[in-house]
Amino acid sequence: MVQANPGQGTSQAKVQFGYHRHRDQDHAASAEHPVVVVGAGPVGLSFAIDLAQRGHAVVVLDDADRIGEGSRAICFSKRSLDYWDRLGVGDRMVEKGVVWNVGRIFHGPSELYQFNLLPEPGHKRPAFINLQQFYAEAYLVDRVNELPSISLRWRNKVTALEQRNDRAVLTIETPEGPYRLSAQYVIACDGARSSLRQMVGAGFSGKVFEDQFLIADVKMTAEFPTERWFWFDPPFHAGRSALLHRQPDDVWRIDLQLTPDCDPQVEKKPENVRPRIARMLGHDKFEFEWISLYKFQCRRMERFIHGRVIFAGDSAHQVSPFGARGANSGLEDAENLAWKLDRVLRGTSPSDLLETYHIERSAAADENIRESTRATDFMAPVSAQEARLRKAVLSLAKETEFGKRMVNGGRLSVPSVYETPLSTVDAEAWASGPCPGTSMLDAPLATAEGRHLHLTDAFNTQGRRFTLLSFANGEAIDAPDDIGVIRIGGDGFADAEGFAGKRYGAEPGTSYLLRPDGYVAARFRHPTRHAIAAAMARAAGLN
Amino acid sequence: MALSTASNFAKPDDAFRAIVEAHRGLSEKDSADLDAALVLILANHIGDITVLREAITLAKRRMIDTSQQQQQQQQ
């Protein structure tokens, strides 16, 4: 088992992996594989696990041989945790992660207000956990190692790509020289500086924010609350913003906005960062784990699919970090793509189904870019009048509810609602419940024996395939054969606390058709076998 | 058009006067701050994004008119 080992200073790798020669490297011709994933970050690893669990062989290539230092992505959403549950790693993430609910917003020396993410009851997972990205990656690598159909190859750097009609051929550099691999599909999860993106000749345009941010992980030996603190114009960092967020192992993440005219290399020096953070925390009982600088960019590829190469995560879209929309949206990409590629590889859906990955996830990327651009503009106003309006909002926030709601220190990631050709338009009137294109909602259930579980667990047990969630009406379900069924009421699960019925706006007979990624494809008040089959065919890209 | 441009105050002079007096004695900077707060408070009271957008369009027409006048003067 991989043991991530924090607290080893700022430059040491957290987990080191070895390069191993693979027999593919002995082939004179390129070895043939169905799928090659480039990039062993959270997105690439999750995607590989998902596809392997669906019965496919996957090669994962990474040019490094270690999991990087620094916390990087730290906020993982409920949606991501639900996905990781499906991949068999959710428990480890949640056990290690820090759950936080209270956020405080400060302006100048005083607190403006606080909010509580207040866990809504009846969900298996919290709204967010904080966890250093290296832990997430280490747990994913452990899971990969349990799956013999994944071949994970470190220090394998893709140096060339050749697109053919029915496949892509990659040239890969290793410590023992180059070799070639041929894949029906290449999934590029190789990050914001994606080399695959350059190889397909695609642009990556958008907005670059002038202000730089300094990010530090500090290990604190003093007590400090498990809360998210955000400052506008704090006394220790006049005119700019700052964020403090707790991670596991008594490590706190600190984001400091820097002025465009400062010298970042000077700012980055520990002797310059330390006094500022000491004023921020009110004590100096801390040591640095990691310090990094970056500029925010909000941009995306115009198309996520280029021939046989499909882009997912930061390689396809990049956002500023306020709102936790980077890694979480990348994981949504992975889940969206995995079931579709599974069907295409099996020949149960046409390859056109993959186009809906682009449709759904590029719209989600636009939404994430819009939200994070707004947050970043609020934090770093670009004109005197913008600064004046922000000042007005911050001062009104002290006295008014509407002012509080206009303060934008990052709107936290929620799953996108897809406007998609895969959805079947409602034929009946629905006053509540998730509409087609919406991610499924969780609810507590109980078995006839009184065992407690959640709807997300039940979905998992059905094999993450097309599943009919059906509220009993005393009649047998007349569903197509190749579909999972979750029955609530009658001889099925008990709606233990009444949440399922309420959240799904259920009446006896109400049924939801869930896609393999847990999104609602269609819903029916009076389902018929024919209507369910038609909705399933539509959601599988068959008409 | 959802934005009402009919005269809504029984005594429009009172309304205009109230705004003018709010600014009286303020520096340019404070006046600008007051306007920013006032715009946000009133926008929230209206609470209708369509009306707000129409109001912005109507207000912005002054900028367009001004720039056209300047162009005409230059010609």
Q: In this structure, how is the largest beta sheet of chain B organized?
A: none
Largest interface, per-chain counts? A-B, 12 and 8 residues
Number of helices of chain B: 3
Uncertain segments of chain B are none
**How would you name the oligomeric state of the polypeptide chains in this document?**
heterodimer
Strand content of chain A: 25-35%
Q: Residue-averaged pLDDT of chain A, rounded? A: 91
The number of distinct β-strands of chain B equals 0
Based on CA atoms alone, the radius of gyration of chain A comes out at 24 Å
Helix/strand/pairing category of chain B:
mainly alpha
Number of helices of chain A: 14
Percent range for helical residues of chain A?
A: 25-40%
Note the overall shape of chain A. globular
Would you report the number of β strands of chain A? 27
Report what the structure shows.
The complex is a heterodimer of chains A (543) and B (75). In chain A, 28% of the residues lie in helices and 27% in strands. The two termini of chain A are 46 Å apart. Chain A is globular. The model of chain A is unreliable at 1-13 (pLDDT under 50). Chain A is built from 14 helices and 27 strands. Chain B has 75 residues and is mainly alpha-helical. Chain B contains three helices and no strands. The A-B interface holds A 385, 388-389, 391-393, 395-396, 400, 402-403, 406 and B 32-33, 36-37, 39-41, 44.
